[in-house]
Amino acid sequence: MTGNDAGQAMISLVRDVAPGFAAMIAIVCYVLALAAFLQGLFRLLRMSNGGSGAPGGWGAVLSFVIAAIMATFPSWLDAAGNSLFGAPRPPASAGLGYGGGAAGHDALLAAVFTIVRLVGLCAFLKGVFVLRAAADHRPGASTGRACAHIVGGIGGWHITGVINALQNSLGVQVLRFS
To answer: Closest Cα to residue 167, out of 104, 112, 89?
Structure first.
């Protein structure tokens, strides 16, 4: 890839935006952890007062679980991925049968993998909050939907591990990009 084509534009965009987006996610996770902890405390307070509007106990428990997950995020994603796929790999270490192995393809694949990782991170976060909504019996929220987001988020965060696991399971022989 030479010049100023779409691939170079995506590589530049990801290189410029990814660090700031990761820092923003970390800040948002700490704020969400504090908010979930306070919400859990208020839920316990309302439950202790009784009343007809008191929420169920599982919503309060999951508020504290969400606070713990958000405070230590994304280490939860790393732990889940390490359990499924083994040792962590750099973002561009998956083998793909794409192109002729030109130097620009590695950088483009790394940019695409970074975007997929960020989407996986957001999907995991959504799954955690859908799980709490399911505990509160909100319409449209189910445990299955929450698990699908969580597992999909883990798969997106560890996209190179998913690609390698699929290729090894299916016996696919491809070119190796690193």
So the answer is: 89
Question: Which residue matches tokens 């049968």?
Answer: 97
Query: What's the pLDDT score for residue 146?
Result: 92
Phi, psi of 176 (to 5 degrees): -110, 125
Q: Please check whether residue 36 is in contact with residue 26, taking contact to mean a CB–CB distance below 8 angstroms.
A: no
Residue given tokens 């995506």 in the structure block: 10
Residues 6+ apart with CB under 8 A from 30: 70, 71
Exposed, middle or buried, 158 (CB in 10 Å: 0-12/13-18/19+)? buried
Kindly report, residue by residue over 108-148, the tens digit of the pLDDT: 888 888 889 889 988 988 998 898 888 888 888 898 999 99
**Cα–chain center distance at 151:** 9
Q: How far apart are CA 30 and CA 53, in angstroms?
A: 29
Name the 3-class secondary structure at 87.
coil
Q: What is the pTM of this model?
A: 0.72
